[in-house]
Amino acid sequence: MEIMTTVIVCFLASMGAGLGTGFAGMSAAAVISPMLITFLDIDPYMAVGIALSSDILASAVSAYTYHKNKNLDVRNGLIMMISVLIFTFVGSFAASFVKASTMGTFSVFMTFLLGIKFIVRPVMTTKESMQNVPEKKRAVQSVFCGIIIGFICGFIGAGGGMMMLLILTGVLGYELKTAVGTSVFIMTFTALTGAVSHFAIGGIPDVTVWILCIVFTFIWARIAAVFANKAQPKTLNRATGVVLTVLGIAIMSFRFLT
Fold first, then answer.
1. How many angstroms separate the Cα of 38 from the Cα of each of 34, 165, 256?
2. pTM (2 decimals)?
3. Closest C-alpha among 196, 189, 193, 169 to residue 180
4. Measured in Å, how far apart are the chain's first and last C-alpha atoms?
5. Is the dihedral of CA 71, 74, 78, 80 positive or negative?
6. 50-77 pLDDT tens trace
7. Section 116-126 average pLDDT
8. Looking at residues 100-118, what average pLDDT do you find?
9. What is the pLDDT of residues 213-242, one digit of tens each?
10. Whole-angstrom Cα distance, residue 251 to residue 247?
11. Residue 101's pLDDT is what?
């Protein structure tokens, strides 16, 4: 009975995380962590480590799928990733001086609001309009946006995928598929860095839960990414919006239970 409960919880948590990653570049930690903590009583630190390690392959397969369909900006993604990684450490250092324990709720609420936004006001930017922005200007924008995203993620401790999607579509004017593809590309490396750090400090987690989450998240992320790259822009906006809205409500509910 216990193993069945573990499989069901891991499957549902990973399904939400995989769909969120494949459709919207959302971090798996936002979905998997609260479910493992709430229903399997896993240590919060290890739950985040499991979620981040699940994010690595899920984000990597999603990034590959988006790149194969020419929906990934590798050059500016690398520029932004460097800024994000550096200023995540800066944000973490700044957060050590502030009582910010309740600020993690920000990323959950933002997930919900972003979902509503994609349903009500879909991103209909085209690749043609994206290409009108000079490369130098885009690179400078990527650096500054990476600084903002990294600092906020380090300070709050969550919300990286959602922040990237919001800024890529709302500030940098990316077409939705390219925004998601670039976001999961960056998240592959940030998740790897986070997972290695967690396991180096906390040790190896429950192997059964760890493997189940990695495999299920990978499968669902692949399914979502394939669907997303074949979908029409309006359909993708609505699907992304629904996924984010449902996940936002679900995560807020899990937080309430804890």
1. 6, 27, 10
2. 0.84
3. 169
4. 23
5. negative
6. 988 999 999 999 999 999 999 999 999 9
7. 79
8. 65
9. 999 999 999 999 999 999 888 888 888 888
10. 6
11. 46
- DSSP annotation of 126: -
**Identity of the highest mean pLDDT range in 51-60, 101-110, 124-133:** 51-60
Query: CB within 8 A of 200, min separation 6: which ones?
Result: none
Neighbouring residues of 184: CB distance < 8 A, sequence distance ≥ 6: 21, 22, 25, 59, 60, 62, 63, 66, 161, 225
Grouping H, G, I as helix, E, B as strand and the rest as coil, residue 238 is helix
pLDDT at 102: 47
What pLDDT was estimated at residue 106?
59
Any residues with CB less than 8 A from the CB of 26 and at least 6 apart, and which? 17, 20, 111, 161, 162, 165, 244, 247
CB atoms within 10 A of CB 3: 8
**Residue 176 vs residues 32, 36, 41, 58: alpha-carbon distances, Å:** 24, 31, 37, 19
Determine how many CB atoms are found less than 10 A away from the CB of residue 124.
11
Here the tokens at position 49 are 């480590």
The pLDDT of residue 97 is above 70: no
Q: Considering just the CA atoms, what is the radius of gyration of the chain in Å?
A: 17
Nearest to 206 by CA among 55, 10, 59: 10
* Chain position carrying tokens 């979905």: 31
Dihedral angle, C-alpha 198, 201, 205, 207, nearest 10 °: 90
Cα(118)–Cα(110) distance, integer angstroms: 12
